[in-house]
Amino acid sequence: MIVIDPDDPAAPFDQVKRQIAAQVADGRLQPGDKLPTVRRLADDLGLAPNTVARAYRELEASGVVDTRGRAGTFVAGDEASRAARAAAAEYAARMRALGVADDEAVALLRRALSAGY
To answer: 73 and 21 in one domain?
Structure first.
């Protein structure tokens, strides 16, 4: 259950994101659980679909959920796989902030893995 608090200074997409992440963290949502469609959750909460879509995109970027195209959005796997996806997302964001090209970022990562880091 997600509740949007109009008195919360956080944007609605952030409230959705935080509440889903909290439900995953405390076990109310388990790996493999399917989340409502963007449109359905937006309708249920009285939000624009783009608001919920942004929350889902950010949850996916941090490794909390996986979007499987038309199949839907699901809670991601175990803690290790969620942490790995979050680390990958952080690495990608850092490389972009530094202006490193995708190919170069991948090459740097491969070299670091080969070096045993």
So the answer is: yes
Coil, helix or strand at residue 73: strand
Radius of gyration of the chain, Cα coordinates, nearest whole angstrom: 16
Residue 99 in this model has a pLDDT that exceeds 90 = yes
Question: Which tokens sit at 104?
Answer: 């170069």
More confident residue, 78 or 115: 115
Q: Tell me the residue range of the domain where 68 lies.
A: 1-77
20 and 4 housed in the same domain: yes
**Residue-level pLDDT at 82:** 65
Q: Do residues 34 and 73 both lie within one domain?
A: yes
Task: Identify the CA nearest to 65 among candidates 73, 28, 36, 49.
Answer: 73
Angle at 67 between CA 63 and CA 69, to 5 degrees: 160
Give yes or no: residues 34 and 85 share one domain. Answer: no
In 3D space, the residue among 71, 69, 87 whose CA is nearest the CA of residue 79 turns out to be 87
Using pLDDT thresholds of 50, 70 and 90, give the confidence band for residue 31. Answer: confident
